[in-house]
What does this fold into?
Amino acid sequence: MAEVETETDRPVPDELEESQASRRRGAEPEPQKGVGSRWLWGGLALPGIVWLCLLFIAPLYVVLAIIFGGIDPILRQPVPVWNPLDWDFSQFNFVMGRIFGPDPYFRPAMIRTVAYVASASLICLVIAYPVAYFTARLAGRWKGLLLAALIAPFWISYMMRMLAWVNLLQTDGLVNKTLSAGGLFNVHYAWLQGHSTTVILGLVYGYVPYMILPLYAGLDRAPTAMLEAARDLGASRFQTFYRVTWPLTRTAVVVSLLVTTLPMLGDYFTVDLLSGSPSNSMIGNLINNSVLTPGETGQAGAFVLIVLVVSVIPMFIYLRSTRSGTDIAV
Amino acid sequence: MSTLSPVSWWRNPWRKPWGLMIVTALYLTWSLLPVAVAVLFSFNAGRSRVTWQGFSMRWYYGDPLRSVWHDSSLHAALVHTLWLGVLATAITVPLGVALALGLDRWRGRIPSGANLAVIVSFVLPEILMAVSLLFVATVLVSPLKLGTSGQVLGLVTFQLSWPVVIVRARLLTIGRDYEEAAVDLGASPAGAVWRVLMKLLYPAIFASAVLVFADVIDDFILVRYLSGDSSTETVSIKVYNTARAAPTPALNALTTLLLVTALIVVTLGYLGYRWFTRGEKGAGAIDVFAGES
Amino acid sequence: MGARTGPAHDRSRQLHRRTVLRGGLLAAVGVPLLSACQTRTHDYGELRIPTPENPIRWPLSKKYPIIESGLKPQPGSVLRIYNYADYLSPKMMKDFEAQTGVDIHLSTFNDADEALTKIASGNLGFDLYFPSYDSLGKLIQAELLRPLNQDYLTNAKNLWHSFDNPWYDLGSRYTIPYTIYSTGIGWRTDLADVNLSQYENPFDVFWDTQYTDNMAILDDWHTAIGMVLMRNGVNDLNTTNSKYLEEARVALLDLRKTMNPKVTIQMYTDMPSGQYGLAQFWSGDAINMPYYLPKKTPVDILRYWFPPDGVGEIDNDLVVCLGQGSNPVAAHYFMNQILDVTSAGQNFGFTGYQPPLKQFTPSDLVKQGYVPENLATAVVQESDFKTGLPLLQLPVTAENEYHQIWQEFKSGG
It folds into this structure.
């Protein structure tokens, strides 16, 4: 095969130059100019699309049919009602009434969820950013090893990590023993008896790996030249961070926050394992307690609907503000 | 040559970042030490999980009633977890790769809607999908039943976005030049995809398979809600149920075994990825495991 | 990439709108399709509630006929048991497996509500289930149980006479009794200094703020609310009186706020490991505690209290054969095994819960060392069933109210 000639060697026809120029400008690639017809790509995508419709979209309608459906009188199991005209709003109104109406006894759990998730995410960010920064920029030859160690929690079962902490935090466990410093003090704190701090730290422990990796990816991509330029021009450490590093990595931070915060909203097992007390319930616990309780299944569906709406809105806002939303690459 | 004054030491931009190093070291310790302790106690000779009573393999195969080898509920959980991992990965990866290819090239309203659905399924809390599928399983008569079938169907739906994201990112970097060259040389469009594009995508496919497997064997909410009887309980369910009761170190042994399996799979995956991308610029970068899109 | 404006952006906005419209159209088509999907139907008639004053003889099930006599369990077949965790002796199950060649699969649930939902879904195929009589009527009326063939239950002669013809199941057509237990107060003297005589109503101890952060109550709605009713002086634990329920609700919420209790059923391991010093206890768990105590802790620090006049929560659990199971013969054999003296002894040794068998006279249990002296009050006497307050099935509206109170309690609201 002859040597590949580069663009600079021979004159380029106008249309080719135009498309290359538009690609360099970073515009959307032209539709339908590539290989293959709609049928090929459509055929490839169809099984996946059908799967998602049947198992992701359609079940959401089943949830609606149950929220607005009935309850059988003997076993108190849900009876779905498919026709929207026959829907019964009593279960939904019941849940809404207990959040916004008089005697709102679901509201504390919702507020608590927001508080826990917000605190946990913030703490995650404070921990994850320096670690990701160090690994991406300053680790040198340890980078690969560090990254492996940071990725490790992903394939260590979440349950195993939580179990390990439950063990350590028991009243006769290693944490209290270490704090007692071999008999100097007598620390007998009941970490697992319904304390918010334990739950928040548990959430942090569980979800901080999810935050580190997108941050690492973003920090890795940030151009070193800019940071060096800032230092060369006399900016102090903090000024460089505040004026150069932080704005460059803001997108990565937002992405990592989304990836960490949204799954945390549905968490219930961390509370179950680290606190046996109902005063720490999150909305995940509300769902979990009611979904298998006869007579309360519709209410579980209502909570699920609330979490759905709350999760989807920030995501839509984010997508609207950054791109048209037709691309999936983040 | 820097002077020894503390101020100039602080101001030196090229000094070793001790602060960050310590923070990172502390984080790694905090992150991995509890797990190391749990693994250690799986070799405990006594029943306690907090007091060391000597070294023994009792909880792996020694104890005739409660070791992982003899207690059928424990090793059944391990086997079921791995089986779910294999099944779910085997379905998710081809489905996801085909979906990624299709969505990337097909323009129109259906694919943009599907795109949106994939993004939403990627970020939604798992409990939403679990509850909706549980409802389907309990009120509708369909192939989705509580038990392995429900668990696999649910897991595939939940994990589908992973291969899509990873493969599409890779497609962006590959571009269309190779297929167009193949078609110019006489291949059919489908042949160009199969013979050229697929080979280029091997690393991404491999990486997504490893990620999906590691995620599936660790899954809790979906497999718990869609579980049937005890033969469909996975290790995470067993841990959750037993952790609040009277666990023995056999539980630590079980999770250690799962840990070792996952480690083997991930290592194989990493080595396979390096092999597939050998000779490629920037190959072997562990970044793809970081879910970099 | 920054935000996009211009024609391309508007076009994608239109795409979004059209996608939504298309989705709506799809839904309009899909809904009738979904309605055509087969759903499980429910139509069981009026709810009948068995009580000691109103015993019921249940009609035999039309859906699940009684199995033939004289059959043997098939070696290699599977027996699926659905029970609480740690409520069946592993040794007893292994012995049964060795004797009959049947493979036992034990699945566990955390509470009876969850169990009922999973059983109602139908496709899990459990053979044996361990309910109490507060859900028995529902199970029978929903046609979920298979009536028993008494020819297989040769060991039924071991039962106490009072269980020959129980009020909840005249003729023992569907059930055999499993264990008997009371619900009282348990504590350990080194972690909680408890003197019940100082309270007008001993259950007031659960509201005594000196035990804040140091106590637990049972994670069972009826058991917990029953205790609160007793503390309020209401001895009808199945009351439908809204005023009493409202007072119970207030007291329960007050308990959570001032005492920060743990809500669990793991008292039998939590208290021995020192997680808290005072808790609401099932008698069997109390008897079981010494097994979980660390070796250097003496057994005599444990205490259990039940009203001396016998007016307290008394119940028994049952074993039933589910119709959805595929191995009813092995199920009958296992039920017979439970009534066997040796196996019942093994089970008692493991779970701590008393079997109502003639050979296990309550007075002997302490004498023969099965139960330590300091826990002698945890042994249930036959006479307790005459004075005791059972937890019964509730009518639908009342059950709704109880559940609502419990949900409010558990939501931390």
User: Anything to note?
Assistant: Chain C touches chain B through 37 residues (CB under 8 Å). The first helix of chain C runs from residue 7 to 36. Strands of chain C lie at 78-84, 103-109, 128-129, 175-188, 215-218, 262-264, 278-282, 302-305, 313-321.
